[in-house]
Structure formats: structure tokens, C-alpha cells
Write a structure and sequence with these properties.
Among the domains of chain A are: about 20-55; about 60-75 and about 165-285, Fusion Protein Consisting Of Minor Coat Protein, Glycine Rich Linker, Tola, And A His Tag, Chain: A, Domain 2 (2-Layer Sandwich). Chain A has 8 helices and 3 strands; from the N terminus they run αααααββαααβ. Chain A has helices at about 5-20, 20-55, 60-65, 145-155, 180-195, 230-235, 240-255, 265-270; strands at about 210-215, 230, 270-275. Chain A has a 3-stranded antiparallel β-sheet with strand order 2-1-3. Chain B has 2 domains: about 40-160, Rossmann fold; about 170-430, TolB, C-terminal domain (Neuraminidase, 6 Propeller), CATH 2.120.10.30. Classes of the chains: A mainly alpha, B mainly beta. β3 of chain A pairs parallel with β1 (about 25-30) of chain B, so a sheet runs across the interface.
Chain lengths: ~280, ~425
């Protein structure tokens, strides 16, 4: 125990040993007043809570409560396309992208491999360069990609909704259009894009990886037009290589996961929306 | 009056009721993804002349291996390709690459020029975005095909991840051979992928702690050539080496400043180890620490304003940071165990270190103020971290339990993708070069 803690304890002990009745009366009075305040608070607070429940949508609480039970239909990644669903191959056209950048300079590395000449201290000539042979790696995992996938999928895995789930009847309100239907659409889109989105989570500044895309979908769930960067990310792409890479990764995810299987009778809700990609929760930042 | 009030309320309700939904576009917050290596297809580079076909195959093979080794890409097996690239100047048939789930496609071509140089072109395509992401062209002498391959890997890595690559780099390390009691330690250097290993010393003297200078042409290291441990400089281009300073005492643990003009090192005098900085241009020496404890393992911050070092002045080996002039020395590591050999990330955001807890040693990283320390390696005895020039990957020495040799391993700063680096025999004490100029 520190020196200051011992001094504080001594002062408290001296105060109680005095035993003056006015002190006791003051304590009783103070306790009574505190009790009265607590009772009054409970009574008035509960009344106010009732009023809030009736008038304002408790949006965040509803979403959190409903989410685990929201029986979203599509949580799995769409099955890989076996047949290319594109139009017949056109005759080769000139490259649409920019021409290959001219070489900056001839690549002629310094002759590092040459043997040392006239060392100050008698360094022996390098022996013949041994050829590298693959060596047994007892500790090496089966496959780098496999191990990463297994590790990450374990970390990031969340229970998916059952296939035979049905949407529940609810009257709660959510964000966007403030309806339960909107929350369902959001959940569905979130769960559909998730398997396709692989951001580069090693960037030094996670905020650089936040990008927004405006999406337009056809009634069949296919992407109607190229996703458009919006907001601050649109201006950052030109100057920040991390944001540019993050935008590319998000665009790949949007295109790869299409078409999006959503309720046709709610097309008006999801025909146009914004994907907000924010990987900061996936990083230690 | 009451009717007017009711009418006003009705109009207000209509405005609030209808205007809000019309202006609110659905927004979907995506905060969780599925981090996995990006599938990328890299067919053998086309060769209009059959005699160049081998070069096209070799270059594509090195690029595949580089990207696969990074852990951020999955190089797809060429046997799975359903398309054959013959003309890299035409857009590919994207659907044929989506069939095999490739997200990226690299097409390239090699062509021997009339002047004897090799011309290598490549393009990186976004298979789902159906656009070219990058297109570059190189000329080189044919024997430099491996370097061109690494430069292509770096360009692809940078375009996809947003940060510089690290494939066109070299590793200097200590090659070990022989029995435990008569271990021969030689200074050696090799490419980042383990190719082209070269021994720089014969092994008559013990050598330790090699470090590259920023130009990747000079190596500072400690050797027992004169019987005492001293810091030496080795010029890779000329093969010359020289002792750094003429100190009567022991000098060890050298490390260059970011501009290469200074070397920070430890000098032991009368049993007391302190950190000194020598200016290589003037040979002036400045003492930075004066504590009677052991101060060693200095490492500059990328902006050269600070130096991290280890010291046991607090009773156990811990990491400290001071200004480059020696002022404001303060401890930053307070986690369990002993912490030493701090190495400042080239990116400036982290400090890598060796941690000893119990009888095991691990590699860890922490922020530069000491917060957020975490262990990232999984070996029994992992020590001596060194950063890739992009600050994304680390290499370190791993001693196998039971004295079964030492190896060099690499790991992503996130703790993923731990894998062994190929070396000719046992190896330790790696130091990563900057990108080769």
C-alpha cells in the first residue's frame, strides 16, 4: 500500500472516532435526501421511457435484436459460374487501356555478383555458388493459401441463416426508409457481398480504405451500370494508392457477387443504393 | 384560428411524411469481409520467336512464385487455364478467366532485340472490372531476367495493394555450417526469393549482425577478424572491407541511419556498453547514452529524428526510445518478459522486437510509443527481426528446439503467412535490403 493511501485511511479513522451526534444527524439527513432522489428518479424516468417507446423508433435496438433471427435467404457466395454468360467473343480490338508506359531506364543492375577484387583485408574468393535445393520443412503448413483461408475463416466466421428460413412479420422500424423491409434488404446485401470482399487489411491507415459506391441494379439483380465511387473516396482515389487499391477491391467484390438475389416485389427499395465499405473493424485500428 | 392551425399541422405532416423517404437512398454498411489471397492468373509470357519461349516461361514462373509467396495472392495453376494468350495487345476474353475464378490476369511477352537486349512487356487486367490496370515495358540484358521478373512482381503488388513491393531486394545473412562446437559462420547474400546465394567471407572468423546501408551496396557487420569484436564495412561492388573507426574497445550492433551517412553502434568501454553514432563522412563520433547499464541495439526511425534501443537500466532488458541527439531517453516496453533488438519499421508506424517469455523467444511488433504490443511469430526461439522495405513483412532467425539448426523465416506484420525462406544450409541473422536502385 502506498504512503498516500495510508494517510487517507488515518484521516477517515479520526473523523469517525470523534463521535459527535451532529455528524450522525447530518449523515442520516443526507441518506434520506439521496433515497428520495433515487425514488423520484425511478418514478419519473420510467414515465419518460414509456413516452419514448410510443413516439420514436428505437432503431438501433431493433436492428441488433432482430439481426440474429433475420432469416436472410442468401448468405452463401453464389455458385461459381461454370459457363461464361457473356456475348460471343468479339474480334480483337485495339487495347482500350493506356499504352504501355515507355521504359524509364534500362535495367542494368550493378555487377554485384562479381567476385571481390583486392580486398583490404584478405577476403577469400567466394566459393562456388551452391544451388539451392528444396529442403524438408517439417513446420511448414500444407499450403499457405489454405492455412490463411482456414485461419481467417475461423476468425471471421459467423453463423449463417438457415436455408429454409422465412421472413418474420414485424412492425419495427429501421434505417433508410425506416421499415423492417429495408433492414432485411440491407442484411441480405451485406451477407451477399461479404464472401466476395477481401480488402488489404495491412495498410498503415485504415481510414484510407473506406470507400463508398453507388450501385444500380436491374430487376434480375445484375449490376445495371458500372459502380460509381462517391463521397470523399472518389477524390482520394487519384492521390492515395491505398484508397485506389481499396476501391478496386470493392469494385471487384461488387461485380463478382452479382447477380444479387433479392425479393422482386421490393425492387423499388434496392434498385439503387450505396455500398459503404469500411474494413476498420477487421483491423487493429 | 383553430382550423388554420389544423391545416398548418396537416401540411407539415405531409412534408415530413413524404419528403424524408424520397431523399434517403438505401445505404449498406459493409464492415466484415472474407480476407483471402487474390486469385491471379499468370500464363507464360508469349514469345514471338520460339527461341525466347524459355525466357517467357521462366519470367512468368518467378512472378507466380513471388506473388504466391507474399500470401496476398493465389497464383492459379496454369493447367486450369482455358484460354491461351497469344496477343497481349488485345483485351483478353474476360469470361474465360472468370470461369476459373481469376480476379486478376497478367499477360506478357518477351522479345529479343537486334541489339542483344531482352524486351519484356506485361499488362495487368482486372477480370471483373474488364479493364487494364497496368502496362509496363522493360529492356535488359538477357541474364537479368530474374530481376525483371521481380520488378514486374513489385509493380503488380503495388497496383493491387497500394503499397510498394519488396521482391527486387536482397537478403544479407549469416550462413552456418559444421558441428555445434566448431560452427563456421560466413557472411552471405542472396535474392529475396533465395536465388543467387553468394558467400562473402570464407568463415575463418565469426561474423554477426550484418546490416545493409540504404543503397544496398554496403554491409555493416561485426566480426572477430582482429580477435576482438569490431564493426566492419563491406562494399559489395568492390569486395573491399574496412574496420569502422579505430577504437581500442569492442564495437558491435551497427545500424545505418536512413540516409546512410551515419552508423549507430554499441561501444564497450571498461565493461560499460553505450550507444555511439559515427558520421561516415567526418568520422566524428558522438556518445548518446551514458547509463552504467548495457545500452545496445540502436535503430533509427525513418525520419532519423529518434533512435530505439534496448537497455537493462530498469532491471531487465527493455526497449527505450531517445531523440537522435541522445535526449529524452524513455522506456516504451512494459509487457511481460524481456524485450530487445528493436527495429523501426521503414513505414514508421511500428517497432519490431524480440520478446523472451519463459524459455521461448518470439517476434513481436508494437507502436512507436510502446502501445499495442503483440507477438506475431510462433517458433520456439525466434530472434532478430528485419523489415521488408515496405514495412509489411518481417524476416527473422529461428533456432529449432534441441539444437537442430537455425533457419530464416518470414511473416506478415499481421501475423499471417509465416513461412520459411530458402537458404543454402542453416542460416541466421537476416537483414533485408531496400529496393535495389
Amino acid at each position: 500500500m502506498s504512503r498516500s493511501q495510508i494517510q487517507t485511511r488515518n484521516r477517515i479513522s479520526q473523523a469517525t472516532d470523534a463521535g459527535d451526534w451532529p455528524w450522525i444527524a447530518a449523515w442520516i439527513g443526507a441518506l434520506s435526501l439521496h433515497l428520495a432522489i433515487v425514488v423520484a428518479t425511478l418514478f419519473t424516468w420510467s414515465h419518460r421511457l414509456d413516452i419514448v417507446d410510443e413516439s420514436a423508433p428505437v432503431v438501433p435496438v431493433d436492428l441488433v435484436t432482430i439481426a440474429p433471427k433475420t432469416n436472410i435467404i442468401a448468405t452463401a457466395r453464389p455458385a461459381p459460374k461454370v459457363q461464361p454468360d457473356v456475348t460471343p467473343v468479339q474480334a480483337p480490338t485495339p487495347p482500350v487501356a493506356q499504352p504501355i508506359t515507355p521504359p524509364q531506364e534500362d535495367t542494368e543492375p550493378p555487377p554485384v555478383d562479381t567476385a571481390p577484387s583486392e580486398p583490404l583485408i584478405k577476403a577469400p574468393p567466394p566459393p562456388p555458388v551452391p544451388k539451392l535445393k528444396p529442403q524438408p520443412q517439417p513446420d511448414k503448413p500444407k499450403s499457405t493459401a489454405d492455412s490463411i483461408n482456414a485461419l481467417l475463416n475461423n476468425v471471421l466466421a459467423t453463423p449463417s441463416a438457415p436455408q429454409n428460413a422465412k421472413a418474420a412479420n414485424r412492425t419495427t422500424k429501421g434505417f433508410g426508409a425506416q421499415t423492417a423491409m429495408t433492414a432485411d434488404i440491407q442484411d441480405a446485401l451485406r451477407s451477399m457481398i461479404r464472401p466476395c470482399w477481401s480488402p488489404q487489411v495491412g495498410a498503415p491507415n485504415a481510414a484510407d480504405l473506406v470507400v463508398d459506391f453507388d450501385i444500380s441494379l436491374n430487376p434480375d439483380g445484375s449490376v445495371a451500370q458500372a459502380p460509381q465511387l462517391t463521397g470523399q473516396s472518389a477524390s482520394m482515389v487519384a492521390s492515395n494508392a491505398y484508397t485506389r487499391a481499396a476501391a478496386d477491391a470493392a469494385r471487384r467484390a461488387i461485380m463478382e457477387c452479382a447477380p444479387y438475389k433479392l425479393p422482386a416485389n421490393q425492387y423499388g427499395t434496392w434498385r439503387a443504393f450505396t455500398f459503404h465499405f469500411d474494413p476498420r473493424q477487421m483491423m487493429d485500428q | 384560428m383553430r382550423r388554420i392551425g389544423i391545416a398548418f399541422a396537416a401540411v407539415l405532416a405531409m412534408i415530413l411524411g413524404f419528403a424524408a423517404p424520397a431523399s434517403a437512398q438505401l445505404r449498406v454498411d459493409v464492415t466484415q469481409g472474407n480476407v483471402q489471397p487474390m486469385p491471379i492468373a499468370i500464363p507464360n509470357f508469349a514469345a514471338p520467336q520460339p527461341s525466347d519461349a524459355a525466357a517467357g516461361q521462366n519470367i512468368a514462373g518467378v512472378v507466380r512464385a513471388d506473388l504466391q509467396r507474399s500470401g496476398l495472392f493465389k497464383s492459379l495453376d496454369p493447367k486450369s487455364f482455358v484460354d491461351h494468350i497469344t496477343n497481349i495487345n488485345a483485351p483478353p476474353t474476360y469470361a474465360n478467366w472468370r470461369v476459373i475464378n481469376a480476379q486478376g490476369l497478367v499477360t506478357g511477352q518477351v522479345q529479343m532485340q537486334s541489339d542483344g537486349r531482352l524486351r519484356v512487356d506485361f499488362r495487368l487486367w482486372d477480370v471483373y472490372g474488364e479493364s487494364q490496370m497496368l502496362g509496363l515495358q522493360y529492356f535488359t540484358t538477357p541474364e537479368n531476367w530474374r530481376r525483371i521478373s521481380h520488378m514486374i512482381s513489385d509493380a503488380i503488388y503495388e497496383r493491387i495493394t497500394g503499397e510498394k513491393g519488396y521482391f527486387d531486394t536482397r537478403i544479407v545473412f549469416i550462413s552456418e555450417s559444421g558441428p555445434a562446437l566448431a560452427r563456421k559462420k560466413r557472411l552471405a547474400v542472396m535474392d529475396e526469393d533465395g536465388a543467387n546465394p553468394i558467400f562473402l567471407t570464407r568463415g575463418d572468423y565469426m561474423v554477426l549482425t550484418p546490416r545493409f546501408n540504404p543503397s544496398a551496396q554496403i554491409i555493416a557487420y561485426m566480426s572477430y577478424i582482429s580477435g576482438k569484436p569490431r564493426v566492419y564495412l563491406f562494399d559489395l561492388e568492390s569486395g573491399r572491407q574496412q574496420m569502422l573507426g579505430d577504437f581500442p574497445e569492442m564495437t558491435f550492433s551497427p545500424r545505418f541511419s536512413p540516409d546512410g551517412n551515419k552508423v549507430a553502434m554499441t561501444l564497450e568501454k571498461n565493461g560499460n556498453s553505450d550507444i555511439y553514432v559515427m558520421d561516415l563522412r567526418t568520422h566524428g563520433v558522438v556518445r548518446l547514452t551514458t547509463d552504467p547499464a548495457i545500452d545496445t541495439a540502436p535503430s533509427f526511425s525513418p525520419d532519423a529524428s529518434k533512435i530505439a534501443f534496448e537497455s537493462d537500466r530498469g532491471g531487465s532488458q527493455q526497449i527505450y526510445v531517445m531523440n537522435a541527439d541522445g535526449s529524452d531517453q524513455h522506456r516504451i516496453s512494459f509487457d511481460a518478459g524481456r524485450n530487445g533488438t528493436p527495429v523501426w519499421s521503414p513505414r514508421g508506424d511500428l517497432i519490431a522486437f524480440s520478446n523472451q517469455s519463459g524459455d521461448s523467444f518470439h517476434i513481436g511488433v508494437m507502436r512507436t510509443d510502446g502501445s499495442g504490443a503483440r507477438i506475431i511469430s510462433n517458433g520456439w526461439e525466434d530472434e532478430g527481426p528485419t523489415w521488408a522495405p515496405n514495412g509489411r513483412v518481417l524476416m527473422f532467425s529461428r533456432t529449432l528446439r534441441g539444437g537442430h539448426g537455425s533457419q530464416i523465416w518470414s511473416i506478415d506484420v499481421t501475423g499471417r503467412n509465416e513461412q520459411r525462406v530458402q537458404t543454402p544450409g542453416d542460416a541466421s541473422d537476416p537483414a533485408w535490403s531496400p529496393l535495389i536502385q
